[in-house]
Please model this.
Amino acid sequence: MKINLLKSAFIGALTFTALASSYANAHARWLVPSHTSLSGDKAHYVMIDASISNEIFAPDKAYRPEQKGAEYDDNLIMALGPDGQPVSDKIRAYYLQRKNSAAVKLSSEGTYHIAMSQEPRIMTFYKDAKGERGRVFGPKDSKDIPAGATDIRTTKSIATVDTFVSRNGTSKPALLGQGLEISGPTHPNDLFVGEEARFQLLKDGKPAANVELAILKGDTRYRNERGEVKVTTDKDGFFTNTWQHPGLYLIEASVSEDSSEKGIDSVRYSLFTTLDVAPE
Amino acid sequence: MLKLNTLIAAVVLFTAALFQHQAHATELEIELTLPDLDVQPYHRPYVAVWLETPERKHVTTVALWVEKAEWFKDLRQWWRKAGKSDANFDGVTGATKRPGTYTINWDGTDLAGKAVTAGTYLLNLEVVREEGGRDYTRVELDLSKDGKITIDGTKEFSQSFVTIKAK
Model:
């Protein structure tokens, strides 16, 4: 598949940007849940908005449905229920130019882990015979790589874009098991101003030591300073933060490392987790 | 240090529990005033009054004025500490109330009817009005001796009083 610049205004270009830089200047991706804590006996729906935007949490670009011209995509957003299994109800994410919106039904009681469906993206970078740089989506043997290309490097990118929602109480959130993600001991739906939260950063389900995270409060449009807080995980992947203000926060991190996987030179992990902090 | 304190607290509570059946529970009389707010629209507030240990573990809920479980989550602190547990709050649940002064009596027992041991607790008060404000406060109480505590007024509740009647 050859890069079409117009099309790549969507995920492709963003993934490329993300690969070429740290999270500080990559495009942020995020989910915004309509609710994070619900009570009551009947099943509830929660609305999930998804967008690719550096203005946290104002939508900028939507994800294009996989099927060209489609109005929705049923495979864009997934949810793991309190039992750890993907929910069986269809999650239909509508394409709305600047954002995608989906209703997720919460039939069970406990915590749902809601995320963009994760599919690692493989990209190959090269220099052609004239010395010009290029890239294709695909492995080293992609036919679009011109003959005589040099400096060929293949990267796998795994992005986690997720959030948590609880109905009638909290349960231990299911892990995605792939990519970066945060885990307890603090429950992601029990965050209050003035209290310290303690999380463990996991990479492919294992503690991720010595990784810097940025904790960014939303509504960046309405202030001049982004004011992100930087924290670094300890040797067991733990980090803490005491919330200064109530609101929605985005937790960002990225890790690039060499890969021993056949045909892959490096892997880049990125994390975009949305958390809701209540006033005391 | 925290662990040690918790351990000591656990030992103290356990020891106290041994004598619990002989002790008469301390009672509380809570005089709560909901102010007459000159606002439009005005919805009667949801109110929760509950006790926690100094480590902020829910002990018992004394009053819960909210009609529908759908709205429980808006009493954010009560919901996280008490509401989302499996406890049955039917005995303390009531309708929302008009502005005025109300006396809430607590007989010293938890939701299961067991006497709460004397000691230090946190009395929590949370008041939330739909389309209005929310106020939350907690005060320390010593259930082992008589006393009267004043809860400073805020916008959503006026100055209120707690009388401790130890036995």
In short: Residues 1-25 of chain A have pLDDT under 50 and may be disordered. The radius of gyration of chain A is 19 Å.
